[in-house]
Amino acid sequence: MASLIQNPRLLLRRRRPSPPLRRRLQTLAAAASANVPTSEILSIRDALLSRRATALDIASGYLSRLRITEPHLRSFLHVSEKVLREAEEVDRAVERGEDLGPLTGVLVGVKDNICTVDMPSTGGSRILEGYRPAFDATAVRRLKENGAIIVGKTNLDEFGMGSSTEGSGFQVTTNPWDLSRVPGGSSGGSAAAVSARQCVVSLGSDTGGSVRQPASFCGVVGMKPTYGRVSRYGLMAYASSLDVIGCFGSSVIDTAILLKAISGHDRFDATSSKHDVPNYAADLVSMDSVESKPLTGLKVGFIQETLAEGVDMGVISAVKAAASHFEQLGSRVTEVSLPSFDLGLPAYYILATSEASSNLSRYDGVRYGSQVAAEELGSLYGDSRAKGLGSEVKMRILMGTYALSAGYYDAYYKRAQQVRTLVQKSFKDALEENDILISPAAPSVAYKIGEKTNDPLAMFAGDIMTVNVNLAGLPALVVPCGFVEGGTAGLPVGLQIIGPAFSEAKLLQVGHIFEQTLQNHRFVPPALLEGTSLI
Amino acid sequence: MFKSKDSANHRLQLIYKQSLVVVGGGAAVFGRLRFGSAGWSSGMARCCSSSLSPPDLPRLADAARISLAPHEVQELAPKIQQVVDWFGQLQAVNLESIEPSLRASTEVKANPREDAAEVFDNREAILAAVPSYDQPYIKRMTPAQMIPLNYAYLLSIL
Questions:
Q1: How do residues A185-235 score in pLDDT, each as one tens digit?
Q2: Which positions in chain A touch B4 (Cβ < 8 Å)?
Q3: pTM for the full model?
Q4: What is its EC number (chain A) (predicted)?
Q5: Which residues of A are catalytic?
Q6: Which range of residues forms the domain containing residue A479?
């Protein structure tokens, strides 16, 4: 066996949990009895290493909860048949004393627009019904390398186009907090699955808010990383200059561990960044050693334009309470204006629909997906696409085709790009005066299924809080911060925390402290506390 | 590509024009969007209208290679018109001397990999995903070729 000195990699691999991490585990165990979220991932790791539970026990527990809740939630388009087998392999690895990756034994849900080689990947669309990709997305490959068990593919609005998951070609996912309401979108399945504890963490994608808004609606933590932080290889493209893969967790620590696992440069994504990936979870402060005002010196800017008319009163008061909480933690909160805020929404939709009209031209029934029989090639394309694509997707492709028509570039696409420059500049200015910016993650809480399906502009309006962040490519974290009346136990409200490019570590540190010090709120859907029944 | 469907296209054009009359004309005036969960549509202020020709749905569907059914044209046309008018508000903004941004300026420098051919390691799976593969061609199934399959189905349900 090579000596440790000659092979430093062996040294790293043999490292046992460091003392600070052990202390964190003890803190978490203590906190488990309180209201604050604990790290499911670290609890699983602790249980496996101390032999208190097997991976098979843990996986069976999640699967049985999944099976009981799925008929009501419908968050999964496909559930893997290999979960228990993979859990048994984990148990064998634990017995052999092998090193365990950070996500060992952790059940992860993957949004169905992210390619997985051993499971169907439909993008939520009938045009890809039954499609099995020839490769794993880089993010999925990294999950597997870190020891994760992929439990299944989650439901979404078709190709990521929508804000409620009602646009799925297959089924409508419900909100675990109130089954008559939407979970948000387009990553509604991933958010609902984590909220209902059908899996530990999940991956989503965020083009205009598709991770952050469902995180807010479902009362879970949602992370949209900086554009380029996570490889997009294997993510079915919607709008290539805006798409990112993001994470869901029931706590900030779990989200941080997941983000670390999937981040980093990838030679298969020319837009992926070579920027260093810090160990996000290791940087999170143990609440034991935290002083009374841990955020002293932090300058927080509350985006003024997000308090305008049209935002629910309940959401405003929850977010204002969060701002006071920040002040109690020692930070300085002031209002800041983002001058191009309102223009961001039409600019976003021009850019997104234009890029989508190009990206979705590949779905023509020729190389993959469902093909409609036709007499000649033009009809083959036209009919396959007509049959396989949903009406929201068709609408957006047609809008994009219009905006990119010859002679219209100056009027639409170019102007939207110019507004993009303005939005980037206003964030840059605001982030010079402030360390982070805060706002609601959505102008409302989860609304009823069917409430907005016939009204495209009403649907678009719900994205006002999130699209500007995508235009600027910045990272944003959503943490649950309060409730609004509704459902059986209230409907969750999420706080959005925005930072400069590649400041995920800072956002997670701040979010973690906020989450761990938030009193009087427990973000577990009420039915789950009683048992596994959601009715 | 759609030359054989000229008459169908013409019919679509008529339906499209009818649907616009229902909405209230070509360049309808819609307002600046206000956000919120309910009641936003009643609170719309007056704003700009687009000075460009309105979307010609049958032509756009042709360009996007989507065979739209007549009822779809009727359904989608007013929605698209509404959204395009809402896009029009960008024309009222003074954007002189602002550089357009191609993408987020998050230090993403182009990192292209080497321009060398690599054989993909799972070619069988790529070919397995093709709906109708007849080595070495990707085939187009004609309706006539579907008949034996349909016949077999009919037999099975009798």
A1: 999 999 999 999 999 999 999 999 999 999 999 999 999 999 999 999 999
A2: 376
A3: 0.87
A4: 6.3.5.7
A5: 111, 186, 210
A6: 71-295+436-530
